[in-house]
Each structure stands twice: as C-alpha cells, then as structure tokens.
Amino acid sequence: QVQLVESGGGLVQAGASLNLSCAASGRTFSSYVMGWFRQAPGKEREFVGGISWSGGSGGRTHYADSVKGRFTISRDNAKNTVYLQMNSLKPEDTAVYYCATKSGWITPDTRRWDYWGKGTLVTVSS
C-alpha cells in the first residue's frame, strides 16, 4: 500500500522560506513521478510542480507559472523522499500542500494522480 506523508509546513512571514518533505513508502519510488499540489481555503486544488522519475539524466521538473523561479522540487530516491523548497513566500501561497504520485508523465490534472498524502499547512502572513 502506497503511503505519502508530508511535513515541514508552518507559519512564516512574507519573504521567508520553507522546505517541505514528502516521505513515500509502498512502491518503487524511483520509477514514478512525484507532484506537489496545494489547496487554499475555498479554492480548488492546484498543481504546484512535479518531478519525473530519475533516469540517467536525473529527474526533470515542471512548475506552475505562479511558483516558477521561487519554488524548487527535488527528490532523494535513496530516502524515498521528495522535497519542495519554497523561497520568497507570499501570502497568496497560503494553502494546504499535498504530494502525490503516479506512473507515466507529469500532469497538472489532479484526477490523474493515483495516491495522495494528507497534506501539510503553510501559512504566510503579510
């Protein structure tokens, strides 16, 4: 059974940084893509970014325009963990952040992701 557990959320001021982690278990982690999503109060869950499985060239990343240049996704296959480094945080980044996994390719469509964590709350104050 696949399990994803996020951690690292918290309350920070605008301009600060946070590093979220997602620990995975129950599957061959390195062969699947990993994604980060977020859901703000009253809004739909949205794609933040994803990282492909680590082939010979390493994991490829893809980001939503709203976070490009500020957020960085990385993975450590030896630790079965994916990270979301968030810099220059803004109040509009406030949301519950989820990680997810799927086979195949990265997609922003939440319906195509197979497994989800329970999320970690990030609150950015102005």
Tell me about this structure.
The chain has 126 residues and is mainly β. 0% of the residues lie in helices and 48% in strands. The protein is built from no helices and 11 strands. A hairpin with a 6-residue loop joins β4 (33-39) and β5 (46-51). The mean pLDDT is 93.
Note the main attributes of this structure.
mainly beta, 126 residues, single chain, 48% strand
**Helix residue percentage:** under 10%
Summed over residues and divided by their number, the pLDDT gives a mean of 93
- Helix and strand composition category: mainly beta
Oligomer: single chain
SSE order, as H and E?
A: EEEEEEEEEEE
The largest β sheet comes out as: 7 strands, mixed
Q: How many H/I helical runs?
A: 0
Low-confidence stretches: none
Could you give the distance between the termini? 40 Å
> How many β-strand stretches?
11
Indicate the overall shape: globular
C-alpha Rg, in Å?
14 Å
* Beta-strand proportion: over 45%
